[in-house]
């Protein structure tokens, strides 16, 4: 009888937990873990964190200080449970401000250091806007690893690799959502899934041109998308889908394999080329803006909660 799908997937892909739920991380034993404002909000609302949340709110210098304290405390707890990277996101509010992103990223790394977690364990998550990618280039040169998130287009992926980002997170499910909304009757199963196709193209480009940037598929809507990308460098998966994979016994065939690298990488895009490519890609433009808004909406909910606790 075949092993469960999760066990097989772990032999060909680094499995990452897309959650701030410590119990889920303990159960599924992923190599890495990712968080974002939505996941931090969920984790912060657990009843067992309420007293600590109130203490943070009362002692913080301002709401930004409180937000970063919460994110780093949860991230530090997660770092004790996984051997690899923990991703922590810079505020979505800073997605179009390179200098502010740099300052916030450095501050997060400093906070982690006070918890005994070194920079080699942390990926600073930044939205893959032009300004965010510029910040990532600078941070990588300073030895701060980055995870470029909310990635929906090949133009974004190319710019991230040119910047030397440690990792990119192309969003599979949200790409599928957009195409389903445009053509509800279309068949997007398996390899016809446009989100799967996007990750495959990025993976093949990076491997074919010798980029060291890690490709981590994210935002899955079903296990079929995950299985179609088996062999990808990393896949970040929600607890519900980890549960499904762990409970299913079936043979799993590797779908992605590195190609031999070309002798040289293509010419990097400049800002005008990047912005034009994004303008031509309605899906990427809409989903990037929507993703920033959604992350910011959950951050505001956490800000409100911390503000109420701060007032007592």
From TrEMBL:
Pathway: Carbohydrate degradation; pentose phosphate pathway; D-glyceraldehyde 3-phosphate and beta-D-fructose 6-phosphate from D-ribose 5-phosphate and D-xylulose 5-phosphate (non-oxidative stage): step 2/3. Pfam families: TAL_FSA (PF00923). Keywords: Cytoplasm, Pentose shunt, Schiff base, Transferase. The keyword Transferase applies. This is Transaldolase. One of its GO terms (molecular function) is transaldolase activity. Its main location: cytoplasm. The keyword Transferase applies. Belongs to the transaldolase family. Type 1 subfamily. It catalyses: D-sedoheptulose 7-phosphate + D-glyceraldehyde 3-phosphate = D-erythrose 4-phosphate + beta-D-fructose 6-phosphate. It is found in: Cytoplasm. The gene is tal. One of its GO terms (cellular component) is cytosol. Its EC number is 2.2.1.2. GO terms for biological process: carbohydrate metabolic process; pentose-phosphate shunt. It comes from the Bacteria. Transaldolase is important for the balance of metabolites in the pentose-phosphate pathway. The active site is at residue 125. InterPro entries: Aldolase_TIM (IPR013785), TAL/FSA (IPR001585), Transaldolase_1 (IPR004730), Transaldolase_AS (IPR018225). It comes from Halomonas urmiana.
């Amino acid at each position: 009888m075949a092993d469960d799908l999760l066990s097989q997937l772990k032999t060909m892909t680094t499995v990452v937990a897309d959650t701030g739920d410590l119990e889920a991380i303990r159960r599924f034993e992923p190599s890495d873990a990712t968080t974002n404002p939505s996941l931090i909000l969920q984790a912060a609302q657990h009843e067992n964190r309420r007293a600590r949340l109130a203490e943070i709110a009362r002692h913080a210098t301002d709401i930004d200080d409180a937000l970063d304290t919460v994110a780093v405390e949860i991230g530090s707890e997660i770092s004790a449970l996984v051997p690899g990277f923990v991703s922590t996101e810079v505020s979505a509010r800073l997605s179009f401000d390179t200098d502010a992103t740099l300052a916030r990223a450095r501050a997060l790394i400093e906070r982690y250091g006070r918890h005994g977690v070194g920079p080699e364990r942390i990926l600073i998550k930044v939205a893959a806007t032009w300004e965010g990618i510029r910040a990532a280039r600078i941070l990588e040169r300073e030895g701060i690893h980055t995870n470029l998130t909310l990635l929906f287009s090949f133009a974004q992926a190319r710019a991230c690799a040119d910047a030397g980002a440690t990792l990119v997170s192309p969003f599979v499910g949200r790409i599928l959502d957009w195409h389903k909304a445009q053509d509800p009757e279309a068949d997007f199963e398996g390899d016809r899934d446009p989100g799967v196709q996007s990750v495959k193209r990025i993976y093949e480009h990076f491997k074919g041109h010798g980029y060291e940037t890690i490709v981590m598929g994210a935002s899955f809507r079903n296990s079929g998308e995950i299985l179609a990308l088996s062999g990808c460098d990393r896949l970040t998966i929600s607890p519900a889908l980890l549960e499904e994979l762990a409970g299913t016994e079936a043979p799993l065939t590797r779908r992605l394999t590195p190609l031999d690298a070309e002798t040289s990488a293509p010419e990097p895009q400049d800002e005008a080329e990047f912005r034009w490519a994004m303008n031509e890609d309605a899906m990427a433009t809409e989903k990037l803006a929507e993703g920033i808004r959604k992350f910011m909406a959950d951050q505001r909910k956490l800000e409100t909660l911390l503000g109420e606790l701060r007032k007592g």
